[in-house]
Design goal:
The complex is a heterodimer of chains A (about 280) and B (about 280).
Chain A lengths: L28 E8 L9 E8 L4 E5 L6 H7 L8 E6 L2 E2 L8 H7 E4 L11 H6 L17 H13 L15 H14 L4 E5 L7 H18 L3 E4 L3 H6 L3 E6 L2 E7 L5 H5 L12
Parallel strand pairs in A: 3-8, 3-9, 6-7, 7-8
Antiparallel strand pairs in A: 1-2, 1-4, 4-5, 9-10
Chain B lengths: L3 H6 L7 H8 L7 H20 L4 H17 L8 H33 L6 H16 L2 H12 L3 H25 L3 H9 L4 H35 L8 H9 L3 H29 L1
Helix pairs in contact in B: 5-6, 5-8, 5-10, 5-12, 6-8, 7-8, 8-10, 9-10, 10-12
The chains are: A alpha/beta (about 280), B mainly alpha (about 280).
Family (chain B): Belongs to the binding-protein-dependent transport system permease family.
GO molecular function, one term (chain B): ABC-type phosphonate transporter activity
Pfam families (chain B): BPD_transp_1
C-alpha cells in the first residue's frame, strides 16, 4: 500500500491561540491543489498540496531533502512557478501576480534563511532596516532611512534581544545572534506571514531552541503565522502548533502537534518498500 | 515508474581500483594529459622565443652596455630638484584625477558588464566596449587625446581615464559577479528594487575588492603617468625624454631615483590600506 494512501486527510481548522482570534478569521496563507513543476520536462516537485496558515500559529514543515519544502516556500513568493492550483498570501493570488507586482508580494512575506543572508559589512541596524526597503523613499538612494523606520528597527532589535549590538557589523555576531537579526529584518517588513527555511540548521542545539522560541513567541504575540521547515523531530514537536510532513512533493502527514507522536512523524523520513507514484 | 526500492538498491558509486592505487602511491606518475600539456606548453614557449629572437648570448653581450648606461646615471644630479618635484607632483595629480575618473566610469560600466546585474542587451555591448578599449595601447590612446586637446597633462588624464575603463571595468564587473548570493536573495525577498539590491546586496560585499583594485589602478596610473609624458601627455615623462636626448644622465638619474621613491611610498601605503580592507 502506498504511504500516500495512508496520509491523513487535510484539515485546516483555525487554532484558538489567543483572545484576538476568538472569531475564525480567513487564513493568511491559503493553498489549494498546488502543483509545481519547474520545466515541462522535469518531474513534479509539489503535487496537489493543500495548506492553510492562520494568524498566530506556528506550523512545522517536515520532510527529507528534495521533498519539496523549499519549493513550497518559494511558491509563496514567486520564486517558484505555480503550475496549477491556487496560492493566496493574504488577499493576493500569487499565481496571478505580474512580474512588476512581485516586489509588493515579497514585501508581504518575511523570510528567514538557513545561512541568515545578512550583509556582513553593514551594521546590524542597517541589516534590519533593509526589511523596510520596499517602502523606503527616494532619499534611500543616498543610504538614508526614515526616522520612524529607524525607531521601529531599534524596537525590533530590543524585541529579539540584540539592540546592544545595533552599531556592530553583522559579520561580528555569532550565528544565533545573526539569525535573530534576520528575524528582526523579517519583522521590519510588517509581514503577513513569516517563512523560515531551516532556520536552525546552522545553529547549536541551545541556540536552535532560542531561535525557535523567538519565532513561536512572535507568532503568538504578533499574530503572524510562521511556517518553519525543520529536520529535527523533537524541535518540531516542541516548537510548533501544527505539523505538515512532505514526501516526494506530497503531504503525507498533517495534524496538530499535540495529536501526533514522534513515531508517526518519523514516517515522513522512513524508507518503505512500497511503490511511490511519481 | 520509479520506486523507493529501485532507488535504495542502486549500488553506491565506487572509486576505480586503478585510480585508488594511483591515489595511494606516495609519488604519483603524472597523468598523460599533464605530460602532454607540459610538452605543448614548452614547445609554445620555445616557438615564441625563436620568433621573438630571444637570445641569451646577445643578452650576455649587451649586459655590459646596460651596466655602462646605469653607471652614467650616477652620481644623480639634483640641481634641478625643484623642477623634478614639480613634475612629480603633476604626475601624481594626473594619476589621482585619472584614477578617480577612471574608477568612477569603470564602476558605471561594470554595472552594465556584470551578468548578475545587467540585462543581456546591455551586458554584451559593455563587455565588447571594454574589450576594444583594452586592446588599444595606452600610448595610442594618449596620442589620440594629445591630438584632440593638445599637449599637456589634460591629455594624459583623459588617456588614463579611458584606459582604466578597459582594464579595471572588467575586474570591477567580475568582483560584483563573484559576491555571495545570500544577501542578494535576502534583498529580493524583502521586496527591494533592482537599485536597492545592488546598493545593499552587492556593493557592500564587493566594496573591499573594488577599493583594493582602485588602489592597484592608482599605483599603475602613477607609473603609467611617467610614460605618457613621452608622447607629450604631461607629467615627468617628457622631461625624462628630453634629458635622455640631451645626454643629461645625472639629471635623468635624479628623476629616476625620485620616481622610485614616489612609487615605493605609494605602493607601500596602498599595500597597507589593501591589507586593512581584506
Amino acid at each position: 500500500m502506498s504511504i500516500i494512501a495512508k496520509a491523513t486527510p487535510i484539515t485546516a481548522t483555525p487554532l484558538p491561540v489567543g483572545p484576538s482570534l476568538a472569531r475564525p478569521a480567513p487564513p493568511r496563507i491559503h493553498i489549494r491543489d498546488l502543483t509545481v513543476r519547474y520545466t515541462p520536462d522535469t518531474p513534479v516537485v509539489l503535487d496537489g498540496i493543500d495548506l492553510d496558515l492562520h494568524a498566530g500559529e506556528t506550523v512545522a514543515l517536515l520532510g527529507s531533502s528534495g521533498s519539496g519544502k523549499s519549493t513550497l516556500m518559494k511558491s509563496l513568493t514567486g520564486f517558484a512557478p505555480i503550475t496549477s492550483g491556487t496560492v493566496h498570501v493574504g488577499e493576493v493570488d500569487v499565481a496571478r501576480v505580474r512580474p512588476r507586482q512581485l516586489r509588493a508580494l515579497r514585501a508581504e512575506v518575511g523570510q528567514v534563511f538557513q545561512q541568515f543572508n545578512l550583509i556582513g559589512r553593514l551594521s546590524v541596524l542597517t541589516n534590519v532596516l533593509a526589511g523596510s526597503l520596499h517602502r523606503a523613499g527616494p532619499l534611500n538612494a543616498l543610504g538614508t532611512f526614515r526616522g520612524a523606520d529607524r525607531r521601529r528597527a531599534l524596537e525590533l532589535l530590543d524585541r529579539v534581544g540584540i539592540a546592544h549590538k545595533a552599531s556592530d557589523a553583522a559579520r561580528t555576531l555569532s550565528g544565533g545572534q545573526q539569525q535573530r537579526v534576520a528575524i528582526a529584518r523579517a519583522l521590519m517588513q510588517d509581514p503577513t506571514v513569516i517563512l523560515a527555511d531551516e532556520p536552525v540548521a546552522s545553529l547549536d542545539p541551545r541556540m536552535s531552541r532560542v531561535v525557535l522560541d523567538l519565532l513561536r513567541s512572535i507568532s503568538r504575540d504578533e499574530g503572524i503565522p510562521v511556517l518553519v521547515s525543520l529536520h529535527v523531530l523533537p524541535l518540531a514537536m516542541d516548537h510548533s502548533d501544527r505539523v505538515v510532513g512532505l514526501r516526494d512533493g506530497r503531504v503525507v502527514v498533517e495534524g496538530r502537534t499535540a495529536d501526533l507522536d514522534a513515531e508517526g512523524l518519523a514516517t515522513v523520513y522512513e524508507n518503505d518498500d512500497e511503490e511511490v507514484e511519481d | 515508474m520509479a520506486t523507493l526500492q529501485d532507488r535504495r538498491s542502486t549500488p553506491q558509486p565506487q572509486l576505480d581500483p586503478r585510480e585508488r592505487d594511483r591515489l595511494e602511491r606516495a609519488v604519483t606518475v603524472p597523468r598523460s594529459r599533464v605530460v602532454l600539456g607540459a610538452v605543448v606548453g614548452l614547445a609554445l614557449v620555445l616557438w615564441s622565443a625563436d620568433g621573438a629572437q630571444f637570445d641569451f648570448l646577445k643578452l650576455g653581450e649587451g649586459a655590459a652596455n646596460v651596466g655602462e648606461f646605469v653607471t652614467r646615471l650616477f652620481p644623480p644630479d639634483f640641481t634641478k630638484l625643484s623642477l623634478i618635484v614639480a613634475l612629480l607632483v603633476e604626475t601624481l595629480q594626473m594619476a589621482i584625477v585619472g584614477t578617480v575618473l577612471g574608477a568612477g566610469l569603470s564602476l558605471l560600466m561594470a554595472f552594465g558588464a556584470a551578468s548578475t546585474i545587467a540585462p543581456t542587451w546591455l551586458y554584451y555591448p559593455c563587455r565588447w566596449a571594454m574589450n576594444i578599449i583594452r586592446s588599444l595601447p595606452d600610448l595610442v590612446i594618449a596620442l589620440m587625446f594629445v591630438s584632440a586637446v593638445g599637449l599637456g597633462p589634460f591629455a594624459g588624464i583623459l588617456a588614463m581615464t579611458v584606459g582604466s575603463i578597459g582594464s579595471i571595468g572588467k575586474i570591477f564587473a567580475e568582483a560584483m559577479e563573484s559576491v555571495d548570493r545570500g544577501p542578494i536573495v535576502a534583498m529580493e525577498a524583502v521586496g527591494a528594487s533592482k537599485r536597492q539590491v545592488v546598493q545593499y546586496g552587492i556593493l557592500p560585499q564587493a566594496l573591499p575588492m573594488l577599493t583594493s583594485y582602485t588602489l592597484l589602478l592608482f599605483e599603475g596610473n602613477v607609473r603609467g603617468a611617467t610614460i605618457l609624458g613621452l608622447v607629450g601627455a604631461g607629467g615627468i615623462g617628457l622631461e625624462l625624454t628630453t634629458a635622455m636626448n640631451r645626454y643629461e644622465y645625472g639629471h635623468l638619474g635624479a628623476m629616476v631615483l625620485c620616481i622610485v621613491v614616489l612609487v615605493t611610498i605609494i605602493d607601500q601605503a596602498s599595500a597597507i590600506i589593501r591589507k586593512k580592507l581584506t
